[in-house]
Design goal:
The structure is a homotetramer of 343-residue chains. In chain A, the strands form 2 sheets. In chain A, strands 14-13-12-11-7-10-9-8-15 form a 9-stranded mixed sheet. Chain A is α/β, with parallel strands linked by helices and 343 residues long. Chain A has helices at residues 13-21, 36-45, 55-60, 76-85, 100-113, 127-137, 163-179, 256-261, 263-271, 288-302, 310-328; strands spanning 2-7, 26-32, 50-52, 66-69, 89-93, 117-120, 144-154, 185-191, 201-207, 213-219, 221-233, 237-241, 249-252, 278-280, 334-335. In chain A, helix 6 packs parallel to helix 7 (163-179). Chain A has 11 helices and 15 strands.
Amino acid sequence: MIQVAVIGAGYWGPNLIRNFNQIPDARVAYVCDLDASKLTTLAAQYPTLVATSDYVRILDDSQVDAVVIATPVSTHRALALDALRAGKHVLVEKPLAATAQAAREMNAAARAAQRVLMVGHTFIYNPAVVKVKEYIERGALGEIYYIDSARVNLGLHQFDINVIWDLAPHDISMILYWLGRRPLRVSARGNSYTQTDIEDVAFITLEFADKIMAHIHVSWMSPAKLRRTTIVGSKQMAVYDDLEVAEKVKLYDMGVEQLALNADTRAELRRTYRVGDVISPRLDVAEPLRVECKHFIDCIVEGKTPLTDGDAGLAVVRILEAATRSLREGGRTIELEKDSALL
Amino acid sequence: MIQVAVIGAGYWGPNLIRNFNQIPDARVAYVCDLDASKLTTLAAQYPTLVATSDYVRILDDSQVDAVVIATPVSTHRALALDALRAGKHVLVEKPLAATAQAAREMNAAARAAQRVLMVGHTFIYNPAVVKVKEYIERGALGEIYYIDSARVNLGLHQFDINVIWDLAPHDISMILYWLGRRPLRVSARGNSYTQTDIEDVAFITLEFADKIMAHIHVSWMSPAKLRRTTIVGSKQMAVYDDLEVAEKVKLYDMGVEQLALNADTRAELRRTYRVGDVISPRLDVAEPLRVECKHFIDCIVEGKTPLTDGDAGLAVVRILEAATRSLREGGRTIELEKDSALL
Amino acid sequence: MIQVAVIGAGYWGPNLIRNFNQIPDARVAYVCDLDASKLTTLAAQYPTLVATSDYVRILDDSQVDAVVIATPVSTHRALALDALRAGKHVLVEKPLAATAQAAREMNAAARAAQRVLMVGHTFIYNPAVVKVKEYIERGALGEIYYIDSARVNLGLHQFDINVIWDLAPHDISMILYWLGRRPLRVSARGNSYTQTDIEDVAFITLEFADKIMAHIHVSWMSPAKLRRTTIVGSKQMAVYDDLEVAEKVKLYDMGVEQLALNADTRAELRRTYRVGDVISPRLDVAEPLRVECKHFIDCIVEGKTPLTDGDAGLAVVRILEAATRSLREGGRTIELEKDSALL
Amino acid sequence: MIQVAVIGAGYWGPNLIRNFNQIPDARVAYVCDLDASKLTTLAAQYPTLVATSDYVRILDDSQVDAVVIATPVSTHRALALDALRAGKHVLVEKPLAATAQAAREMNAAARAAQRVLMVGHTFIYNPAVVKVKEYIERGALGEIYYIDSARVNLGLHQFDINVIWDLAPHDISMILYWLGRRPLRVSARGNSYTQTDIEDVAFITLEFADKIMAHIHVSWMSPAKLRRTTIVGSKQMAVYDDLEVAEKVKLYDMGVEQLALNADTRAELRRTYRVGDVISPRLDVAEPLRVECKHFIDCIVEGKTPLTDGDAGLAVVRILEAATRSLREGGRTIELEKDSALL
């Protein structure tokens, strides 16, 4: 039985507690927060849970195997380093850290302590995202050309991080997972309308080798929620729309190759909305956070490296950092591998 | 009765002929194309229509009041200049010209000939676009912050112009019309996947004074058609989705001001998709092309300046030119008013 | 070249003229209507068309091969009988006649004159409807259990016929075509709210042998348009939604057999919206009315029996008649083959 | 603090426990089920909860104020009667009882014991349903003409009750709540395809005074889930679609009166999908089951009659009973007030 402590009882913390408690091999022993009212609520709900405002107490308890950090991102580094040095396995909510430098220190500490360091890129454990990965892996889409993602909604503004750090980690982690590679260049444009220096709208471009491109639109100011990603390949194309209840993933059996070659098809497209069949595959029914929590426990028990390990967390943070810098420099292209400030 | 000649009998030409013929004050007297089979088809349909492959014959006919040019964009300049110099009023399909320089020559020729020069920015005559303009004019949206537009679909590739020149004129003309101002800076990123040097995917950013921003995504390689524009203001927001059959325009009665000020609203947004009422207004039933054709005839008869005159056409062409240049220079920001090549 | 005369220049007449004129083997020679303004409009559009208010002139013209009747249903019988007796082939808009008795007379007249009698059940020529028929024919759906159809919208009230006669012919003709059989029993419930004795809402049930059932909801008073038919089979199910622009037909690869047998599936359904893949097939791009018009011409030229011949028209009329009677008798079940008034 | 015991730990029981535990004035003291594994799971989750397979123990515990019955419907009567006679307040899941006779006995027992008897018609506590009620109460819809409801999905078959008893209680309870009256006549048609004598598809008609009609379609065999109710009034119309995430209720500001009177509007409807504005109102964010549980506790504490009391439960059961009888008698109209078997 893995004993888990959850630090941070805000919006996400209770979800983590509920999910870890439903895994047979795990039990949440502690919850830690500075807000006493949140502790009281959780303690009432989980009578065996120890609620504390002192996280040192957790680190000192040798019964605790793992620490889950769901606090504001600026605190991730310090909490994770302390926990790793205390010999705990650590799961950190996304984004892994507030700077690439912090993420690197955390990775180093995990290696030194020989402990699991995992980041909560939940979407990687989402059956829809996994299905798209399957399509890509078995070549169904052909060569990938570009990915376009929109993650916009109204008003979940943060006060400490901008919209890129709040929303884009989801898209970036999916894109890196699907492509299996890292971008060469990052750029972004956007603005802060409601708060000084906290951008609430951004358009981000990632450029990879082989002309592969990804574009991400994130916003806290869009009246209608969108969670929609299009993956365009040479053979087929896919759309993943997380707001669709019954048909989250659609595979369009028409690719760019066919379009380019076929005059009849081109003529037909003038008169219709699409050509080719569309398939919406059956998806596994699984709560992604449950899968993620279980994966963390499995990695601890079996000594495995997580799918979303500290390196995956670092890769995302580097892009967030570069995108924010680009945005603030008027959309300048940031060369990820050549920019010493990013190394 | 205004006698009209239509040059270009391709995809759009027959629509122009049908619409002009349904305006009481106008009659299409000539159609001109180099493709004899297209002429035959149209002649059979409209027995009184003179079909010719020689446009000089049209210019020489003093009965012809107006020439409508629906040919490939590279031919717009020469045809329009000849027609204007022959004393004809001219309606040119969008985009007005292949270069800003050509557009300027066309404007000068129209002024010299004292003839109407109009560009076919059809969306400006669309009841949905007009409704959004009304909202903006009467302050319903408050201060405009940003506009985000997606115009993507599968496969209507052009061989002579890239996707920016093909699709973005619609969005750019709407945005300039709504905002009533011109951008200071333009940038774009994109790629050509299926043809050498003909970009088929692009992401364009327009920056205006007062931090107003517009973003346009155009693509010929997206499996699912999108025609969706979001207008974000300080008081309210609007979405114009041209693919919606019954609710093309939606007005969301919640603006950024309210969001920023109201803690309860922010909390509520965590738990729901939206706050505030949504109104989808009744729209006039009108075919935009019919309204456009009628406006052209009215301008001729009444000596008025068209809503989409040569200057409006030039403004769009300058942005198309800048966007394509930016794209080819890796997304570099183009300062519209400072770049001598654009003046 | 088949010479066609169109009688009735109301809503549907101009569509018929346009379509017949685009078929190489046909030409519309006459249009007939009592409304002179409609004739003037059409004559301006088609200069070679003879416009007349006297249909006898058409019947007397031996050059005319075929007469298309698009007048109010109460006039179908007399016009069709006169045309058939004058040796013309006849296409009648749906429904074929105002009574089953009239439809029988028309069929008899067609047989006696050895002329084609066809009814304009347009949906039978719709690629989406044909695709569903293909699925059924090749057993993809298994045994058909029931069909549920909704055809509702706002306000296209008729003054001479009720909503059953106005809208249900579409659904009934599709259902008979798909099932390849006739119902044993018909019942209907509904009401007239806006006009005395002209029902504007109805719910119709058709019962076939082998427990097959069809239900049709028609209304002129529904605020949101619906055109949606579900076909439930033992192996798979299909939905045909005519308002969907890109995915009109969907095939759900899960049937009742599987559901009944599989406990895991049943449990999974508690947690999700669906199981199994969904396929939306590519459909041919064809205007159903064009296909219908061409089929009429082909039947004349090749001496074939139309897919929607007079018998198909009669079958629909019998059901309309029985449904209206059932509605007016409080929903009483009408036995189609046993009710002498219907034979 | 009201002490609650929940009998029945199946699909719905855990939701009841969670919700009652989140109401400050209530605490779930017992859970009772015959399935030991379900008890074990719940006991682990709620350490202070007493889990038992013996409901008599609950009735004997004088600390228990209220009993919530979430067992199969055939057991409702016996459990409720025992609980009421033991002096407990009782909340019974819908439908209240398996027969109208049983429902009457339960009502009599509640009156005799002077205890609250409430039925779990959850939809009456749904903000969307309440909003429609508000529209009706303040006359926004005018006179109500008819209500049409579809509640269909795939495969949640029950083995002890048919689809009418499983799904229609939701629609019937909403319709009676909105209209504030009871139907005069009930009829239904349907079939059992997958199980003998357990109907899995049904179409139900309710007829009220003043020509008001309601139609309900319920099915366990429909591939695509629908939860959609249309309310047609003389002044305006409303649609409540429970599957819509952001716009569950829409109010169409066009009624039958306007349509009937206005020739221009009728003509416009030929060319468009709708006329008039559409408003989707902001809805309160509330979990209906939470509101329901709180209402039960409030009624106990304040001695109030529940909105969904035993009489409301009986009214629904009478209609379910009549509908099933009608279906089995070939759709015969059942006169609710004249049929002695129903009194």
